[in-house]
């Protein structure tokens, strides 16, 4: 084959590799000057018929479309010659990742995250075109001279050859160690590629060949964390990528990419995101964002406090109380947490406990009118009207036009007058009973004295 000129244009100068599906060669495009190197893939289907031709044309169109991405080789031409198919693709000047990911050498987490981000950005484009690569592995990742990763050697072309071969019709496209079970069963999914990327990352982190990593005999889940220096956050993402059953994995490259990108966000980034989501009343998403901030910085008391607020928005009051308590444990002099804790207890009707929380808030910050107001309301609810009025007065001394305090102060005075009126009635009745009793006892004593003096 070396020295041969194909299609009156492509001069074969070197063999790059090959396998059951065909051979790959380096060639010179004689019609071009300057940068005229290209890669020629020779495919050798055992059967050539209309179906084969149609599939070849389809795969060529797929590769042509994918080649519009800067990090996927462009398809320059495709043709048939001497009952063999040929694809001509852009030559990538660089080296594959087998020169970087080596057995016994462990990559750092930052480097792995950067690799994942770059691979997943390309894979997201591939999956958006509803294409499964089928053979992601270090050998099929080229580090171009500009440092970018280029995804090569799509398995669809090999699949075309296998499906039309009488001798390799049961051949599964892919590489052991990087293939999940459904791909081994010839039922590849988009998330089969995600599994392969996860395995590549784990191999880089551990320095282990994917085939050598043990699995849990009960769950078939990969056991690898003890072989790498890795954060729980990245490990959880990778475990999700390489779940044994495809339904339990990330279902799209974009979903994984979002998760990986989140690793580079700071606790403040997540906190600010949570605040924005809270303002939009997207409380569930806000809780998730605050959780991410807390995971990065467990003593982030503002995140704990605002997580409690988001949980209040979801009416998950028990969890809200727990978040406020956690914020207070970290920073005891946090009046807003005490106040919000009191509000949850007030909503539950646990007024005595609410008052205790309001008192704690007031000890720290005495000029918050709403704390005084709701303290007054809690006192009002348990019938302690004098103390309630005193709390409303404090609220009004800080904010004279606090309409709720004005209105409920009036109600407290009214209830106090009613109570005082009822109490006065009872006191009068009691006084009458006492006086009557005294008169009766006095009259009885007088009768007894007369009886004694009469000599009877």
From TrEMBL:
Enzyme class, broadest EC rank: transferase
E.C. no: 2.7.11.1
Gene3D superfamilies from the UniProt entry: Phosphorylase Kinase, domain 1 (3.30.200.20), Tetratricopeptide repeat domain (1.25.40.10), Transferase(Phosphotransferase) domain 1 (1.10.510.10)
Reactions this protein catalyses: L-seryl-[protein] + ATP = O-phospho-L-seryl-[protein] + ADP + H(+); L-threonyl-[protein] + ATP = O-phospho-L-threonyl-[protein] + ADP + H(+)
Annotated binding of ATP, by residue: 41
Key words of the record: ATP-binding, Kinase, Membrane, Nucleotide-binding, Serine/threonine-protein kinase, TPR repeat, Transferase, Transmembrane, Transmembrane helix
Species name: Iningainema tapete BLCC-T55
Keyword Transferase in annotation: yes
CDD domains: STKc_PknB_like
Molecular function, one GO term: ATP binding
Transmembrane feature ranges: 426-451
Domain of life assignment: Bacteria
Family matches, as PROSITE patterns: PROTEIN_KINASE_ATP, PROTEIN_KINASE_DOM, TPR, TPR_REGION
Nucleotide-binding in keyword set: yes
Pfam family, one: TPR_1
Protein name: non-specific serine/threonine protein kinase
TPR repeats: 267-300, 301-334, 335-368, 369-402
